[in-house]
Amino acid sequence: MLTSVKIRNYKSIESVPLDLGRINVLIGENGAGKSNILEAIALAGAASAGKLNNEFLASRGIRVADPQLMRPAFADGTENTPIEVDLVDGSGTSYELELNNDNAPYSQWQCSFNGGSGNWIDFDKFGPALLAERAKNESIKNDLSIFINTLDSIIELNSLEETTHNDNANKTHRIDIGGDLPVFFEFLKKEAPKFTKISDHIGGFIIYSPENTSLRLFERDGQVEPLGINGEGLFKLLSVIFDGDDLQAIDSIRRGLRLFGWFKNFDVPKETSHGRRGIQVHDRFVEATNRILDQKSVNEGFLFLLFYGALFSSKLTPRFFAIDNVDASLNPKLCQHMVNYLGKLAKENGKQVIMTTHNPAVLDGLNLDDDDQRLFVVSRATSGRTKVRRIEKPRTVDGAPPVRLSEAFLRGALGGLPKGF
């Protein structure tokens, strides 16, 4: 899990640090920069996966614009400024990504990387056993050269030294990579924790914005699997979950759907009476009529909660992702209980999420006594630059009832509300 993100030079963001929990909720007025924060992380995720073409960026939920418009415009000359995203994971390993674009027509973003490890280093492929067996093979020699050159950008191999300890003294000697592969790989073994793949953290980061039409058209698949940004691929993912008898995920999804008072049961049978596969939803109020609802007849809110349940429960979905406007199409009271439910699912399934919302009820689903759940207000400084402030749990005066976060938000005590009216 990532513990911090720092973004520099992206749209309205000049420099914004964010200390993350497992569940992170961003509030703020329209245009404050909430989506810009999500997009900068998604851009870093695309870079770690080596997929920086515009079509792939759009499929991650990034609003792709001309390269110079994706940099800040607070001073002259910033249209060529690199976008920078620094990340720190739970082990303390830091990753620094710098993205550049020459602003030429059809030009693609390029990423340089420092710290940790990039997706392009494959330790399974370049393991000691494989190289020991095939060290004389010409293709392996070429691969090794590429591998070492890549490592050179992370650790200074030209001056690589190893310190050995014994009872008499500490001895330092140079490792001859070309002539002493076994020693070199012994060094890599010891340094392996520093080479955690950054793509394992953010390679699958997507900004989800589910839409009613995409959720109802179960036949449509997204460009990104298993779930597209608008909910494409939901039915296929549900089919995989049910066909694989993933009982934990099935139970988690059903548990969330019980937030609807009318809900009785949900299933994805392998075959249906009319030969076309779909979901089956049982409404307890019409049980006597033996009517079964499908994806076209259930209400919109049900489909949204079904999507979130699958997203947070499946082992196939990203470990770290975002949801823009998580309150869309949902009753305020349902939003409160849904956020509480998603917080439990995230912890159970090792997920980390950043959510944006304009609905005060979402805040009441957070438990700010739990450091894994965090609330941030995003706003613009007088200069126009985006800034972020973490909101702690409101303190209460002795004898006074606790103030609900939704009430504090609407009163303006938290910030993040329009000031023009």
Present the secondary structure layout.
Elements: E1 2-10, E2 13-19, E3 23-27, H1 34-48, H2 54-59, E4 83-89, E5 94-100, E6 110-114, H3 128-134, H4 138-152, E7 161-165, E8 170-174, H5 181-191, H6 199-202, E9 207-208, H7 212-216, H8 234-243, H9 247-257, E10 263-267, E11 280-283, H10 300-313, E12 320-323, H11 332-349, E13 352-356, H12 360-363, E14 373-380, E15 386-391, H13 405-411
Parallel strand pairs: 3-13, 3-14, 9-12, 12-13
Antiparallel strand pairs: 1-2, 1-4, 4-5, 5-6, 7-8, 10-11, 14-15
Helix pairs in contact: 9-10, 10-11
GO molecular function: ATP binding; ATP hydrolysis activity
Protein name: Chromosome segregation protein SMC
InterPro entries: ATPase_AAA_core, P-loop_NTPase, RecF-like
Sum up the structure in keywords.
421 residues, alpha/beta, Rossmann fold, six-stranded mixed β-sheet, five-stranded antiparallel β-sheet, 13 helices, 15 strands, 30% helix, 20% strand
Descriptive notes:
It holds the Pfam family AAA_21. One of its GO terms (molecular function) is ATP hydrolysis activity. This is Chromosome segregation protein SMC. Residues 23-364 form the ATPase AAA-type core domain. InterPro entries: ATPase_AAA_core (IPR003959), P-loop_NTPase (IPR027417), RecF-like (IPR014555). The protein starts with a strand and ends in a 10-residue tail after the last helix. It folds into 2 domains: 1-119 and 177-205 and 318-420, Rossmann fold (3-Layer(aba) Sandwich); 215-317, no CATH class. Strands 9-12-13-3-14-15 form a 6-stranded mixed β-sheet. The protein has a 5-stranded antiparallel β-sheet with strand order 2-1-4-5-6, with helices on one face. A two-stranded antiparallel sheet has the order 7-8. A hairpin with a 2-residue loop joins strand 1 (2-10) and strand 2 (13-19). It has helices at 34-48, 54-59, 128-134, 138-152, 181-191, 199-202, 212-216, 234-243, 247-257, 300-313, 332-349, 360-363, 405-411, and strands at 2-10, 13-19, 23-27, 83-89, 94-100, 110-114, 161-165, 170-174, 207-208, 263-267, 280-283, 320-323, 352-356, 373-380, 386-391. The longest helix is centred in the last third of the chain and has 18 residues, at 332-349. It is an alpha/beta fold and 421 residues long. Helix 9 packs antiparallel against helix 10 (300-313) and helix 10 (300-313) packs parallel to helix 11 (332-349). It has 13 helices and 15 strands. The chain is 30% helix and 20% strand.
